[in-house]
């Protein structure tokens, strides 16, 4: 492979620096003198081959190759003008594994070299070989690059030893192909977002900590590297409590030709914090004024769910508009309805609160939500709204209540023809909104709402925030003409932009890209199906029943499961006729067929089986008694981004009907 001249020069320079560092030239001179003195006759000439043999015999060539592993990987690996950032793990921080590196780009090498003081796991015994145990996983996001560490067993001092290579460059001002210097890197204010996830022995995930690492302190170090002890704080109600410390080492590669003084770095960071604080202060002053004006319209507005700020997982109040941003899914999701299905299969979990006392509010940043793979209704609504905005729709998050006054959030889209569509992010269902006119005479038939929403206090997206100031906040009576200020009181778009636009403040994390699924749907489907067969056989054996499986009948259930998922994604039913015809042919005259489909968003076969047994219809099939009983089960796993999945299971049986 030929290299461009500038890359070849850069490569030669790196190798030369490494050779000088190891004093290779001095060692070669010593070997040369020793060889001439001991092994050659006075008249004999020393050839290059003889010198190389002598160097190899003394292990000098092996030493050089070991030290040059990182550089040789650059020469061996494929070089592109815009390489995909990749992460690699190493047991020894000095020995780096292969990764795509462009010598014309600047990188930040972040190493996590263990943790300590995770006191919650102080009494945790060391896991035995092969034993399933709870694990920690560290997830990182930096400027559209995402990384994930190897899972390590939960312990007081977790054994993190991972390296992540983060590319640092400017996308704007024509600087995308130029290596970033110290001044350019100082102007990049995006933090490294670190999220620590705990996975228990049942596969359930929980959010342990979320931390924004200010990495630019490395720019003021003399040798281009620095060590940081990162203290991680808890989340939600424990956001002021330390959960542990990570030892982090940062290194700039290639080394900067000219470093900055620590004073310059500290001054820049202080100015950014000051600017951010001033913007947030001005927005808070404006928000208070807007709220006073809103209450003056009608005193009853005080009881409406008009939410201007929301706390994130770290207990920091952020404007709600900052939780939404147009998000493109690349080629991972093709349609808005497929995006709604993806959000729907992410798990639902309300934020926990110690000692009860109702719901603790916690709106997660997007990375924390995606890494945990579950969240509250607000997290689902924010993600769905962001995806729909990415598809070019006019989408808003709605904040209001469901039945019995339970607070809830859902998504609304406004069509160009005035059609208002509600999207329930927890189920994927869509509802067309047709307002009821209370002034119509009783003879006029009014539309009957199918949606579960009762009241609405406000709507917002990344650019707009509107408070409902109609006489009634009942959803079925609301008119969603958002341009009518007599019905919807808007906030200043400039004020929102000052604190919610990308890059407006250093306190707002940029949105991470979605990651493709790492689940093999066929393998996972087979594994769950085999586990369910074993569980059914054991259950029937306990009841004194034999179990005979019919593979062909199991296979015939596949089209039905595919049809169910297609209907969930598109709201269109297809393929049912072929499935029914195939079943009729497979079931002989005088026999009865029963089938029970069920849907899950997790892959735990034992948990799914226990849930199925709670259904009398499913239990009737699994515990079927009769003549010539044949059982069937089919599992189909449909994968989505972020390793989310929809798991469809169908149990079936056929038997001879005996009167």
Walkthrough of the structure:
- Centrosomal protein involved in regulation of centriole duplication. Required to limit centriole duplication to once per cell cycle by preventing centriole reduplication.
- Residues 100-257 form the CEP76 C2 domain.
- Pfam families: CEP76-C2, CEP76_C, CEP76_N, CEPT76_peptidase.
- Interacts with CCP110 and CEP97.
- It is found in: Cytoplasm, Cytoskeleton, Microtubule organizing center, Centrosome, Centriole.
- This protein has 659 residues and is α+β, with helices and mostly antiparallel strands.
- It folds into four domains: 5-68, no CATH class; 107-171 and 178-260, Immunoglobulin-like, CATH 2.60.40; 272-500, C8orf32 fold, CATH 3.10.620; 521-656, Pathogenesis-related Protein p14a, CATH 3.40.33.
- It is 32% helix and 23% strand.
- It contains 17 helices and 24 strands.
- The strands form six sheets. A seven-stranded antiparallel sheet has the order 18-17-16-15-19-20-21, with helices on one face. Strands 1-6-2-10-9 form a five-stranded antiparallel sheet, with no helix packed on it. Strands 3, 4, 5, 7 and 8 form a five-stranded antiparallel sheet that branches.
- α8 (336-345) runs antiparallel to α10 (377-390).
- The longest helix has 36 residues, at 262-297.
- Residues 69-96 have low confidence and may be disordered.
- How are the strands ordered across the major sheet? 18-17-16-15-19-20-21
In angstroms, what separates the terminal alpha carbons? Answer: 79 Å
Shape: globular
Supply the helix-strand structural class: alpha+beta
Total helical elements: 17
Strand coverage percent: 15-25%
């Amino acid at each position: 492979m030929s290299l461009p001249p500038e890359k070849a020069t850069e490569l030669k320079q790196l190798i030369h620096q490494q050779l000088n560092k190891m004093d290779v030239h001095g060692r070669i001179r010593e070997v040369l003198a020793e060889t001439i003195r001991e092994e050659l006759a006075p008249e004999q000439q020393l050839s290059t081959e003889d010198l190389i043999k002598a160097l190899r015999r003394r292990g000098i060539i092996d030493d050089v190759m070991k030290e040059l592993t990182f550089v040789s990987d650059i020469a061996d690996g494929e070089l592109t003008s815009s390489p995909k950032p990749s992460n690699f793990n190493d047991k020894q921080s000095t020995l780096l594994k292969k990764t795509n590196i462009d010598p014309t780009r600047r990188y930040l090498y972040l190493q996590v070299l263990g943790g300590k003081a995770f006191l919650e796991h102080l009494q945790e015994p060391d896991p035995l070989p092969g034993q399933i145990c709870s694990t920690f996983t560290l997830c990182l996001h930096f400027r559209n690059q995402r990384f994930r560490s190897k899972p390590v067993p939960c312990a007081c001092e977790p054994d993190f030893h991972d390296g992540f290579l983060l590319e640092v460059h400017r996308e704007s001002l024509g600087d995308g192909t130029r290596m970033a210097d110290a001044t350019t890197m100082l102007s990049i204010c995006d933090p490294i977002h670190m999220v620590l996830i705990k996975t228990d022995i049942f596969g359930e995930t929980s959010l342990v900590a979320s931390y924004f690492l200010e990495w630019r302190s490395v720019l003021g170090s003399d040798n281009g590297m620095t060590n940081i002890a990162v203290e991680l704080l808890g989340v939600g109600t424990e956001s002021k409590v330390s959960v542990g410390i990570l030892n982090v080492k940062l290194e700039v590669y290639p080394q900067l030709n000219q470093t900055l003084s620590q004073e310059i770095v500290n001054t820049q960071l202080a100015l950014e914090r000051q600017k951010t604080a001033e913007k947030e202060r001005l927005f808070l002053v404006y928000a208070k004024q807007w709220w006073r004006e809103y209450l003056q319209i009608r005193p009853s507005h005080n009881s409406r769910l008009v939410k201007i700020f929301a706390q994130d997982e770290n207990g920091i109040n952020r404007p709600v508009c900052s939780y939404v941003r147009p998000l493109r899914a690349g080629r991972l999701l093709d349609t808005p309805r497929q995006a709604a299905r993806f959000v729907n299969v992410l798990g639902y979990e309300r934020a926990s609160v110690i000692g009860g006392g109702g719901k603790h509010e916690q709106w997660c940043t997007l990375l924390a939500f995606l890494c945990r793979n579950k969240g509250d209704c607000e997290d689902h609504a924010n993600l769905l709204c962001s995806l729909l905005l990415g598809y070019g729709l006019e989408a808003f998050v709605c904040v209001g209540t469901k039945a019995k006054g339970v607070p809830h959030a859902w998504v609304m889209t406004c069509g160009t023809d005035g059609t208002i569509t509600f999207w329930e992010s927890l189920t994927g269902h869509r509802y067309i909104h047709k307002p009821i006119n209370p002034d119509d005479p009783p003879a006029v038939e009014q539309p009957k709402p199918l949606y579960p929403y009762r009241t609405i206090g406000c709507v917002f997206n990344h650019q707009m925030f509107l408070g409902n100031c109609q006489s009634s906040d009942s959803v079925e009576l609301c008119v969603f003409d958002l341009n009518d200020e007599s019905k919807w009181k808007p906030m200043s778009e400039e004020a929102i932009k000052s604190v919610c636009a990308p890059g407006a403040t250093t306190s707002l994390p940029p949105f991470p890209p979605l990651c493709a699924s790492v689940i093999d749907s066929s393998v996972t489907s087979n594994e769950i199906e085999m586990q369910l067969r074993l569980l059914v056989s054991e259950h029937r054996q306990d009841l004194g029943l034999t179990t005979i499986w019919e593979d062909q009948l199991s296979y015939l259930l596949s089209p039905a499961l595919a049809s169910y998922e297609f209907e969930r994604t598109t709201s269109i039913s297809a393929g049912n006729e072929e499935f029914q015809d195939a079943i009729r042919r497979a079931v002989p005259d005088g026999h009865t067929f029963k089938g029970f489909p069920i849907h899950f968003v997790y892959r735990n076969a034992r948990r799914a089986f226990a849930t199925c047994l709670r259904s009398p219809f499913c239990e009737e099939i699994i515990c079927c008694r009769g003549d010539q009983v044949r059982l069937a089960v089919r599992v189909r796993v449909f994968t989505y981004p972020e390793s989310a999945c929809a798991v469809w299971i169908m149990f079936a049986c056929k038997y001879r009907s005996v009167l």
